[in-house]
Each structure stands twice: as C-alpha cells, then as structure tokens.
Design a protein that fits this description.
The complex is a heterotrimer of chains A (453), B (323) and C (341). With 453 residues, chain A is mainly alpha-helical. Chain A is built from 18 helices and 9 strands. The two termini of chain A are 68 Å apart. By secondary structure, chain B is α+β, with helices and mostly antiparallel strands. In chain B, the strands form 3 sheets. In chain B, strands 1, 3, 6, 7, 8, 9, 12, 13, 14 and 15 form a 10-stranded antiparallel β-sheet that branches. In chain B, strands 4-5 form a two-stranded antiparallel sheet. Chain B has a two-stranded antiparallel ribbon with strand order 10-11. In chain B, strand 4 and strand 5 form a beta hairpin. In chain B, helix 1 crosses helix 2. The longest helix of chain C is centred in the middle third of the chain and has 17 residues. The radius of gyration of chain C is 24 Å and the shape is globular. The two termini of chain C are 28 Å apart. Classes of the chains: A mainly alpha (453), B alpha+beta (323), C alpha+beta (341). Strand 7 of chain A pairs antiparallel with strand 10 of chain B, so a sheet runs across the interface.
Amino acid sequence: MNDIPLELASNAVKAFLASQYDKKTETEQKQLAKAVESNDLLLISTLNEKLTIAKDKYQLDNWMDNAANKMANQISFGTHISKGVHSGSKGDNISFEPQSSLPDGIVGHQSINNHKLDASGNAAALPLFSFFDFDVDTDKKIMDYIIYDSDSFKSCLSNNKKLSAQYFQIFRTLLTGEISVPCSSEYNKQVLWPTNHKTDAYICTIPLYPSSLTNSVYEKIQHIQYSNDVKIAKKNRFSSSAEKTPYVTLLDIATVTIGGSNPQGVSRHMSKQGGRNYLLPSLPSIIKQERAFKLSKFANSIFSTSMEYNAREAIQSIFKSIKDTRNIVDVRDARKSAIEGVLYQIFAAAEDIRTTMPAGWSKDYELDRVEKLWLDPKRADLEGEEEFKAEREQDDAWHSQIVHIFARWLNTLMQAEFKEIASNFGDAEHLDWEHEIEDMKKRYERAGKGVFL
Amino acid sequence: MSRVDDDNNIGIVGYLLFKKVMIDGANTISSPLTYGFPAITGFLGSFHAMSRKMADDESLSEVSLGGVLLACHDCQPQMYRPNSYNNYTFNQTRNPIKKDGKTASIIEEGKCRLVMSFVVEVLADTTLTTEQQASAIQNTKQWIQQQRMAGGSVRGLAIFEPVQFFDNSDISAVIPQLLPAFVLMDAQNEFAQIINDVQKDDPDATPLDALIEVCALHQIPETQKNGDTKWLTTSRKSGHGWLVPMPVGYQGISELYDSGVMQNVRNPEYPSQYVEAVYSLGKWVYPQRLNRIGGEHDIANAFWRYRYDADDSLYLVTQRQDF
Amino acid sequence: MSKSALKTASVLAFERNLDVSDAYLWQTDSKAANKATSPSPVVIKEKSVRGTISNRLKNTITNDLAKLDAETEKANLQKVDSASLDENNDTLVARFSLKVLPFTGKPNVCNDQDYQKALEQVVTDYIDTQGVDELARRYAINVLNARWLWRNRVGTESIKITVKCNDQTIIIDDAKAYGLKNFNSDDANIRQVADWIKAGLNGDEFIILYVEAQAIIGYGQEVYPSQELILDTGSKKSKVLYRVSDRRGSEDNAGMHSQKVSNAIRTIDDWYPDAEFPIAVEPYGAVTTLGTAFRQPKAKMDFYTLFDNWVLNGDAPDISQQHYVMGVLIRGGVFGASGKE
C-alpha cells in the first residue's frame, strides 16, 4: 500500500473528530435547535455551555492526549484474544502477522481474506477503537495506515510535531500488539507439546481465541442460515407458484456463547455477535438405532429376518453395488464398504445384547449354542456354568462357526435377491461377490475368538 | 519404508490394545471452530503421560509408547436443541455461587460421553519379555483409569481382556477387535483436493469456505419435463466417505519465548509460545478398511503422533511416519 | 530464603481425588417373586402441562377486569420432562461409582518450585500427624447414609445400600438410620468403607467403589433426576431432565449429574463458624441452594486465608480447619494467585 498526502490524512482525523462530536452531542444539538425556535434563552445558554465543553473535548490535541494516555491503557487489540478462552483471563492479546503460509489442506488465520482486528477492554476506551476503525478511503481504515507506519498520519495527530509522533507510536504499539513482557494467566489453556521424543523437551503452547477467524465464520454461517435470500428460497420451495432457487443448509451446527450475559466484557467482536459462535460437527457416523435390536426367545440365530430389518440399509447398498456390474475400482470399493456396513450393524446389535442383558439370559432362549457362547459372556461366571465357561474359553471352533453362519445368511439373502435376474447376473460377478464374503470370513477366522470375547 | 522411530534403535516392538474405554465428561468442544469428537491432542497427551510413567517403572523403564490409533464406538455430546431446525447448545453445569451469594458467570463448556478403543505403539530396542508384557498390561490398565483423558474420567473398560498386547508381526489381528467402531484417519490430502474443487467453482472462495462446505448440503431445484420441481441434495464430500472438519494442532502466532520469560505459565522451565488451533479434515472409516502392513490401507498409517516443525512454527498431529 | 518471602504460585491447580460418576436411575419391585430379574431403567417422559397463570400480573391488566379474565384464562401450555417409577415397581435403584485417587499434596500444576515444596511439606505433615482417617470416615458416612440421593431420599420407606470394592461387598439395610446432621455414627461397615477410601487416598491400592441404593418409594411414585441447565430451551419447554444412557435404544434413562452426587459426598464441613449442619467443602463455604457462603473472607475462615497462612507463614490452623483445608485440596480446583479477583 501507499501513504496518502498529509492533507488527506489530516482531513480524515478531523472528520473522525467531527463525527464523534456530532454523535455524542446529537441530543443537545436537537434541543438547541428547538430552544432557538422557542427562544428559550436560559436553555440556549446552558446547552451552549455544554456544547462548548464537548467541542473542547473533541478538539484535536485534547482528544489525542486522552486517547493516547488514558484510553490506550484501557484497551488491547488483537486478532487473537485471551478473554475468549476464559473471560477471567488477564493474559495477552496478540495481533498475528503471518510470516509464512500454511501447508496445503490446513486452515488457520491465513485462510481468511480480510480479517477484522478485535479489541477487548474498558468500555470507556471504545472511542479509540472507533478512531482506528474510521474509513479513510474505500478499503483502508486509519488503523491500516498506522500499522503501515504512515508518515502523514505520524504528523497530523497534534499541532505539536513531537507530540504527534509520540501519540502515533503509542497507537502503533497498541495495534501491532508488541509485547514487552509476555504475560499469560492461569485461566489460559496451556498445553505442553513434546518436541523431541528422546530428550523430554517441551514447548508450553498457549492457544488464544482466534476472534478474527471466528468472527469471519460467524458472518459466513449467519449468512447461510439467516440471510434474506436463503429465507426466500426456503419459503419458495414449498410454494407452488414461486420461482425455485437453490440454497444451502448446514447440518448439526452448535452454538457456544462466550462471555455469558456480558459478551462486551470479552471483546468487541463478541459484543457484536451477542457472544455467539458457531461450531462445525466432527462426529463419527455412529448409527442411531431407532430401537434396540430385539432378540426373540424362539429364534435360533441372531442372523434372522429381524436382523435383516435392522441392517436393511446396508443390505440394500450391497444389492445396489452388485447390480452395478461395471468392473471398476469404485464399484468394488462400494461393495466392500457395504459388507462392512452390514458387519457394523451386526456387531452393534451383538454388543447391545452382550452389555445390557443380565448374566445367564440365554438359558431360556432357543439360540444356537455357539451364539449363546458369544452373546451371553457373563453367564460363564455364574455358579453351575463351569461347562459353559470351559466351552467358551477352551474350545476354539465356535467363533469360526459363527463366521460361517453369518456368511451363509448373507449368501442366502443375495441368492434370494438375485434369483430373478440370475440370467443377467454373470458368473464373474457372482464369483467376485462370493470371494468378498470368503475374504471376510478368513480375516475373522484368522483373528480368532478374540473378536467375539 | 522404515518402521523404526528414527535413526537410533528404538523401534515398534508391539502394540497395546485398550478395548472399549468408557470416558465420561470428555471435552466435546475440540477447538474454536469444531465440536463433537474431542481434539486428538487430548488423547495423545494421556498416552504420553502414561509413557512417562513407564520410565519410572522398574520393569518398563526401557519401554515407551508411540503413536495412537483412535477407534470410536460411541460419542454422545451432551447438548440440546428444541427443534431440528435450531442449532444445538451445550448443557451446562451450575457452578458454585460466589462468596457474595451471587451466581458466577457461566463459562460455557461442552461435555460428551465416549466409548473408545485405542491401539498404541510400544517402543523399545529389544522385544518385550513375557514378564514385561504382563507388567505393561497390568500397569497401563490401572494408569488409564487413574488419569484424565481428553478432559474426562475413565469409567471403565471392556469386561473381557480390556488390555492386550500384540506382537509387532501380529498387528492385523487387532483389526477385528475394534468392531463395531470407526477409526479416525487423516484426510488432509482429500481436503486439499476439495479446496481446489471449491476454488474452481468460485475463485474467491478461501480454504475456510471449503471447510464450511464440508458440512453443507446444497439444495438444488431441477425442473422436470412435466414442469414439476425435483429437489436434489448434493454434498461436496460425496464419494469421499465420512469427512469431518477437526483441529489438527497449532501454529505459533508470537515469537517463541525462552523459558522464564512469559509470566504465569504452568511450566516456566520450558520455552513458551502463543498459538492458534489449525484445522483440516479427518475421515471416519470402518476398521475393516485397514489391513496389513504394506497394503493399500496399511494399518501402520492409522497411528497419530506429535510433530513439531520449528521452521514454520507448526505443532501438528499427523499420521505420517516420516517424523 | 526466609519463609515470609514465599509467595503463592501464580498458577496452581489440583485435580479432584474423589472422582464420582453420574448416578444412573433404575427401578424394580421389592415384592417381585423372581428377584433375579434385572432392574429396568427409569425413563424420562415429556409431558404437556396446561399451567395456570400464576405470575404477578402488570397493574394495567389487574385494573381492567375484562382483560384480567382473558389473561388468566389463557392457557399456559408448556412441555416439561418428568420421571417416575412404573405402576408395578416400588423401588428406585440408583448406582454410581467412586474412584479414589492418591492424595499426596502434589499439585497437578504449580509454577513455583519453592512454593510447591512448602505446600507438599504441609500436606505431608498433615498426613503424618492426622492422617486422612477423619476425612475418609466422613466421606464413608455420606456414601452409606444415602445423602447423595438428595430429594429422592425424602419420604422413602427404607433404603438399602450396597458397596462393592474389589471382591468384597457390604450391605446396609437401613441407610436412613445414619443421620444427615452429624458424623457421630460409627460401626464396622463405616470403618470398612472408610478403610477403602483411606487406602485409595494414601495410594496403597487403586480403589473404585461401586455403590448402589435401593430405595422403596412406592408404586408409580415420582423420581427426581438432575435438571439440565440449558441456556436456550426454546419457548415451549421449561424443564429438561438429565438423560444418561449407557446403551443404544435407551437414551432416555434418567440420571443424576456427577457433580450433584459428588457435592453430597463431600458435605462434611461442620467446622465453619456457628455451624448448624454440614455443608459441602467449598473455598468460601458456598451453598448454592441457600444462596449463602458460610465462610466469608472477613471472618478469616475461608480456604484462601487458612491455606495461605498455613503454607506461607507456617501458621497451622486448629485441627478441624486443617481437615477442611485438606478437604478443599481433595475436591480440587484452580487456586493460583494470577487469576484471583
């Protein structure tokens, strides 16, 4: 960027002071106009007195003196703030100026285009923020010039050259967050990071709250969820006459409120966001079962129609992947992953039975002995069940029998599904599929009964 | 590919499996941008602490722990939303009142209940004796219950053989033991590709936009021949598997201060640095996807480790083995 | 270096040594023929209530009769959660586990070596002269007197408590026989549980206690799980109860928060000034339900005053306040100087 002429810089500062004066004395000015109209001389004189005091306050040297020597001590700027971690923290804020880019596929502060500097501190010092935030031209604010070390601004903050340079330096130090004595707080999160496996060397890392980044995320998500365009698009979807436009929905977003009922105590961004910040979900796709898998007393295997229902989605995707006869990696991958999905369902149902049914439940069930050994593990510890325990622990064959029962069940399902299209269903695909099941079988046999214990 | 930690002799001699570890009150707010599954560092930290305890144990002083495989059986954040179109909020706990009898301001936290299995690399310069294996199983089973994990408390482990030792050559036998669960894999490369795709469609889009895109569903109207509208739902991650945004460590945002310089740090004996969380994508895969060493989905690539890059001030958790 | 030059570490934190789990609520029937059937979960149900307007109305409304009628007749439709036993069950079964971790006085975090040394010395001296016997005994009584059932304890016919540790089990048939007012009770069962807790605190053994209460409260009676603190419940629901679940398909299993159970276990402080009943060990003796802090700093009986005098000046308080200070350390928390108001 380039510096601007002194005159323009000076005008910007004057414009800021004038706008502050107008804003702060809006009521008095209106009252004055009325008083003049009604010729209320007493009121006119008291108001004029007030306005003179205010004018004095927003006179260049007075305001800057107050800003540089009082407000500057009560406010701290940063892209990263301590109070966002814990509102009780008195640790430093940091204005981060990245020196390097991040590796591909990693997101951080460098990944936002125009970051907005945040500020935290006493409300009485907020006018200083407004000063820094004042627009000089279309895309530059006073703070940008101060950070840039603009000569013009360096000389227009006071009628006294020396004082002006002094104020400028104070502001610049404040904005760039130069820290003389770094100071954290016990309320800051602190994480020891091992830097060398062999020597017990660590660095104490202190993560700060990236409020410039979270502010940007807040605005993006706010736009996606609540902007007018989106509201209209959603409404029109269900109206027969309106024109349909695409829109975006976000799944499972959470909000966290920082600063509780006092977000302005945390920072300016938090104050503007009402403390609200959005979080994206990292959850695994744990399948929420509508109901627990219920085992019938009279079933002799858990591989039943009931299980077929339980795992119906995964089974459907196996069918789909087999019907897709293109012999490409994607299809084979989909097939593998569909079997994995069925297995996941079965183990999830088995786990449910194993952990929630009381010890010895299988005594009154018709289930195959081998499946009882698998699904009623706590029975082995009951009195009089020594035989069960011995079978479970010493015998090595029962687990491979379960794998066989499973493979047979799956094959039967496949054959039933493909009976009608058997003619279109080439031998090669069929063999491929059987190979898949065989593969899975071997893997589980190799792993031994550890899987089932 | 070297299976050795680095150029000295310490190598992976085996693996410890911790089966179905139930954790209550784990920190579900994993970073300023993500929630759900706790940050990986929360687990690595626990096993690192455990490794240090080994150093003080007579029979295990030559043994340490390396990378950690994370398999999630269940993860339930404690949160609430009145309707499916509301965002979630985290259920809070009432904190003790202040000394003046007033309620203290709420510092929001988010907790979750987890059931996890871990496979942890066991490092040593010689293979473990049977006694050492037994001692490692015995000790780590107790330690894991005594220390906190991802901010939560360990409530218990699997009833049968909760901690097992596997020989280095026997690693594929671990895989079926992880069922039913999802294993967390690094998807940084897939993310780089998605960022590219997103920027192809919109040159102004940032990598941050791409991160949000991963959680987005595009609702697209398509007019049919008969004039009806059919709505298509598309997602950037389709075809990629179950991708999720997650924190993968930190980058420095200040200079690195010498030990003793920064005030009010927990460990003044070490250097310190202000950092911010950095993010990438993770991918939850079925454990059956993983297979023996050298295969396409080599299980050896599923172990998370600390990595520190002083030049770029990066503190990352990674599954890459070239560290 | 003289003792008086010692300063409180700016960062100082203790991890809790009594690690309590959530309590899960189950139900069963005391008269059931087949005692072997395992209890079923107490399930939280959502119900719609048509409340009446009972809040104080604005003057403008009360002064206008027509408006008043309209306003008070307006249905106050609300949804609330509730939990009760089934019609055929009369017994509430509540279970939690209590892990006891070694208490050595070593802080979890402390950034001042000299201070840490002085602190550990104070704890060592306490353990050598007093031991953790008195604290362990009081915690044990609070496990056995079922204080941790809170409102569920009120109006019960009888409460049976079972505590399991390793391979041993003790059973108390009438937990209510132990009062809540004082810690004078003493018998073999209390001593046994106290011994376990002591062994855990001393690090002699790794201790987990599995505690179960069976409270006969009557068929179909209401049960009181913890209430969730939800900052935004929406406008239609005013009460959300705590659902715990240790299995699929049963996400509505009622529970009590671990903090609530743990608060009851450490309700052992009857050493505060003018004490009339025991309160939970807290730095300022704060009792949330009463909105009062019983150990005000101006009375110089709060944790920080007692603790700083003891560690920094070697000025040990009397024995009962020593128990209190150690109770706070066992509770855990952030006690450093950098974050203090």
